[in-house]
């Protein structure tokens, strides 16, 4: 059976109910905050994981590109060396001809041409 409560007891009971309700609201707010925090952390982890995976893929692609460019540079260098060697062979081969042709020019600036060839006939026509 209920015994009649005094004013102090009624105030104390109301305060306890208010405190319990306030504690429940705080508990609900903190659990909602924990859920939001977990969602946020999960989202950050997922986005970070995706970004890290993308960065790893990009780094791998860049390494492949670097290897490709390195082999292409080596190939171009070999081709240049081959071309320079070919040019040197041509220069070495033509060099004596140039010296020989230079020695065939008279002091008057005309070349000494064989007497019976077509060039001799042409040169004689030009002079004559």
Break the fold down into its secondary structure elements and pairings.
Layout: H1 7-103, H2 118-127
Helix percent reads over 70%
The number of helical runs is 2
**Spatial gap, N to C terminus:** 156 Å
What series of H and E elements makes up the topology? HH
Rg for CA atoms: 50 Å
The share of residues in extended strands comes to under 5%
Describe the structure in your own words.
- The chain has 128 residues and is mainly α.
- The mean pLDDT is 75.
- The protein is rod-shaped, with a radius of gyration of 50 Å.
- The protein has helices at residues 7-103, 118-127.
- It is built from two helices and no strands.
- It is 84% helix and 0% strand.
What does this entry show, briefly?
The protein is an all-alpha fold. The chain is built from 2 helices and no strands.
Looking at this protein, list some descriptive labels.
128 residues, 2 helices, rod-shaped, mainly alpha, single chain
